[in-house]
């Protein structure tokens, strides 16, 4: 039985092919197109599927798309569509960002974004670039496979726990956002994953880190590693500020208060401008609060699971300095991080 996993919703588009539970091939689209992260995480790019990565996986197994039994897509639009669709229809104004945004939407582009995802099966069977169509040919428009929309953080959790060396482990996922969740806690036993809790939008450590990345003159959803490194030049001058902003609620929940970066830390640095001490201190304080709060969350997760083992995934788990802090300061004795902790790993 062949299962094809696809990540395409935001960025780091990727594909994985599994045969009877064994990974045959996995690849990120950027390796073929030479576009870093595959695409930018904007609604207009959501329709783009990682055709080259899929083609690579099919080629490795010497099969065609029509031979695939199951396709998993690491985002479930139906977790959000209930509020947006009426009788199977969603309305998209001609100029969404110039129109009033209904209160139940988060962005004026929500209908376009979700519509692209719902139509991904047909896009997969009919949208491959001309020169690689051979392995996609002769597949019925709606597919000869069974399609599964997988909740984004469940995909992250499975990508961390199932390939890990543990039969039982606590699982922590943390990223910018999935459908609603930004952080989840689970307990994995054999091939079962039980969700213990989750933090929902708008409270997101990942999005906070992205905003500071942008404020420091870097590309958000891409250059966060530069902020992590920049932190080593600074001091925790703003740590108390961030302690006020990010509050732990005691049951794995946390809140992040809204604040204006410009008002709090001065004007944003433009790309190419020299760094000042306040930039180093902002990066240092952000990194310090991330590590401090996540270790506190891991103390809660350990109390809930009583497991010695921890698995990590989600874009924030690409922060290796945070991961080292979890390894050294949290109650877990063994920590396993999914190497493709970002969205690419959700294809697995
Ligand atoms: Fe993610």
Tags for this model:
12 helices, alpha/beta, 19% strand, globular, five-stranded mixed sheet, Nucleotidyltransferase, domain 5, 348 residues, binds fe (ii) ion
Instruction: Please give the radius of gyration in angstroms.
Output: 21 Å
Give the strand order, joined by hyphens, for the main sheet: 3-2-1-4-5
Coarse shape: globular
CA(first)-CA(last) distance = 15 Å
* Mean pLDDT rating: 94
**CATH superfamily caption of the largest domain:** ATPase, nucleotide binding domain
Q: Quickly give the CATH architecture of the largest domain.
A: 2-Layer Sandwich
Described by strand count, sense and barrel closure, the largest sheet is:
5 strands, mixed
Overall strand count: 12
Cofactors, ions, other ligands = fe (ii) ion
- Along the chain, the helix and strand elements come as EEEHHEHHHEHEEEHHHEEHHEHE
Helix fraction?
A: 25-40%
Percent strand equals 15-25%
Give structural notes.
The chain has helices at residues 30-33, 51-61, 78-81, 110-118, 120-126, 152-161, 205-215, 224-230, 239-245, 261-265, 277-305, 320-329, and strands spanning 2-7, 14-19, 22-28, 70-73, 146-149, 168-174, 181-189, 192-200, 246-248, 254-256, 309-313, 334-337. The chain has 348 residues and is α/β, with parallel strands linked by helices. The protein has 2 domains: 2-150, 2-Layer Sandwich (Nucleotidyltransferase, domain 5); 161-341, Nucleotidyltransferase, domain 5, CATH 3.30.420. The strands form 3 sheets. A 5-stranded mixed β-sheet has the order 3-2-1-4-5. A 5-stranded mixed β-sheet has the order 8-7-6-11-12. The longest helix has 29 residues, at 277-305. The radius of gyration is 21 Å and the shape is globular. The chain starts with a strand and ends in an 11-residue tail after the last strand. The mean pLDDT is 94. Fe (ii) ion is lined by residues 152, 156, 175, 178, 314-315, 343.
């Amino acid at each position: 039985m062949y299962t094809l996993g696809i990540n395409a919703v935001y960025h780091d588009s990727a594909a994985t092919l599994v045969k009877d539970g064994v990974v045959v091939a996995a690849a990120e689209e950027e390796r073929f197109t030479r576009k870093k992260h595959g695409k930018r995480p904007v609604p207009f790019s959501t329709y783009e599927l990682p055709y080259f990565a899929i083609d690579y996986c099919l080629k490795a197994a010497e099969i065609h798309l029509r031979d695939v039994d199951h396709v998993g897509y690491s985002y479930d639009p139906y977790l959000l569509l209930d509020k947006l669709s009426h009788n199977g229809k969603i309305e998209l104004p001609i100029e969404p960002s110039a129109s009033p945004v209904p209160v139940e939407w988060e962005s004026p582009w929500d209908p376009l974004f979700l519509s692209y995802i719902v139509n991904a099966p047909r896009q997969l069977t009919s949208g491959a670039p001309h020169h690689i169509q051979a392995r996609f040919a002769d597949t019925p428009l709606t597919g000869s496979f069974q399609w599964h929309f997988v909740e984004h953080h469940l995909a992250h959790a499975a990508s961390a726990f199932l390939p890990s060396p543990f039969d039982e482990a606590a699982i922590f996922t943390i990223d910018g956002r999935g459908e609603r969740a930004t952080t989840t806690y689970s307990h994995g036993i054999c091939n079962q994953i039980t969700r213990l809790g989750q933090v929902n939008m708008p409270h997101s450590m990942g999005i906070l880190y992205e905003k500071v990345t942008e404020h420091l003159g870097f590309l958000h959803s891409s250059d966060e590693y530069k902020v992590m490194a920049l932190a080593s030049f600074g001091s925790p001058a703003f740590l108390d500020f961030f302690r006020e902003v990010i509050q732990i609620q005691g049951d794995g929940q946390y809140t992040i208060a809204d604040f204006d970066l410009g008002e709090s830390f001065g004007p944003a640095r433009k790309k190419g401008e020299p760094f000042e001490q306040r930039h180093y201190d902002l990066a240092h304080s952000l990194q310090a609060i991330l590590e401090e709060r996540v270790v506190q969350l891991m103390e809660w997760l350990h109390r809930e699971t009583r497991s010695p083992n921890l698995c990590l995934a989600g874009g924030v788990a690409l922060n290796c300095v945070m991961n080292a802090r979890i390894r050294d300061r949290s109650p877990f004795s063994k920590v396993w991080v999914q190497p493709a902790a970002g969205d690419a790993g959700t294809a697995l």
